[in-house]
Write a structure and sequence with these properties.
- One of its GO terms (cellular component) is protein phosphatase type 1 complex.
- One of its GO terms (molecular function) is glycogen binding.
- This is Protein phosphatase 1 regulatory subunit 3D.
- By secondary structure, this protein is of the alpha+beta class.
- The chain has a domain of 131 residues: Sandwich (Immunoglobulin-like).
- Helices cover 15% and strands 37% of the residues.
- Strands 3, 6, 7, 10, 11 and 12 form a six-stranded antiparallel beta sheet that branches. A four-stranded antiparallel beta sheet has the order 4-5-9-8. Strands 1-2 form a two-stranded antiparallel sheet.
- A hairpin with a 7-residue loop joins strand 6 and strand 7.
- The longest helix is centred in the N-terminal third of the chain and has 14 residues.
- The radius of gyration is 33 Å and the shape is elongated.
- The protein starts with 21 loop residues before the first helix and ends with a helix.
Length: 242
């Protein structure tokens, strides 16, 4: 009565090893020396899951160099440079560096929050993008916090929503502050020297809109070269990291 097709059993076929050449069979054959074994020949071969040969003989002609992949050569070169370096391994990497002091570390952070109703707390950069926290005064329960940013001096812009994280009391004890977190994805091709990312925080509540744009200058991060040092005992970990 069912319209489903009849189920058929799955046929499992075992892979069969490929025949070996007479010469290879002759080299791999071992004659049993145990009495009563009737001169049985034991053969040893290496094969993959499909029964195919795992070994292959490559004959190089005179003057023909073997081809080494570029990624292997680069790792050998890096390993050589690190080996002959000083006691500490030194290298540089490009990352976005804030052109401003972290607002939470400023003495006027509380007054700015009282004045603007919203204030960036802190921002950090990684190879994936920018992560940060924003504090807003709890004017009403329904609220929306977002971050507007640009990569090309506001010729085009993007906006992402921030998400509620926690609630804390204000330092003056007069009210409550909500903490929101955000993440700005930064494409890897933008991580070039002198590349700039600008953003501002937006707070919408009770039909009104508040901004924190670093007092009209916007929050700016510039891609710069950052030196890093690593102890020599971490050399092997650094090679695996590459």
């Amino acid at each position: 009565s069912s319209c489903d097709p009849a189920l058929r059993p799955i046929i499992r076929r075992r892979a069969r090893s490929l025949p070996t050449s007479p010469e290879r069979r002759k080299r791999a054959a071992v004659q049993c020396q145990v009495p009563g074994c009737q001169n049985r020949m034991n053969r040893v071969r290496f094969a993959d899951a499909l029964g195919l040969e795992l070994t292959e003989v490559k004959v190089f002609q005179t003057g023909e160099d073997p081809s080494i992949p570029l990624h292997v050569l680069s790792r050998l070169s890096i390993n050589s440079d690190l080996w002959y370096s000083s006691s500490d391994l030194e290298f540089t990497m490009q990352c976005l560096v804030p052109d401003f002091q972290q607002p939470a570390d400023c003495m006027d952070f509380s007054s700015r929050l009282q004045e603007q109703q919203v204030c960036l707390e802190r921002v950090t950069s990684s190879d994936l993008g920018l992560s940060g926290t924003i504090q807003v005064r709890n004017v009403a329960f329904e609220k929306q916090v977002s971050v507007r940013y640009t990569f090309n001096q506001w010729k085009s812009l993007h906006e992402v929503c921030a998400h509620w994280h926690s609630s804390i009391p204000e330092k003056n004890g007069q009210g409550q502050v909500d903490v929101f977190t955000f993440f700005l994805p930064v494409p890897p091709f933008l991580l070039q020297l002198c590349s700039v990312v600008q953003f501002a925080a937006r707070y919408q509540v009770n039909g009104r809109e508040y901004w924190d744009n670093n007092r009209g200058k916007n929050y700016t991060l510039t891609c710069r070269t950052h030196p890093l040092k690593m102890p020599r005992e971490c050399e092997e970990s650094w090679i695996h990291f590459i």
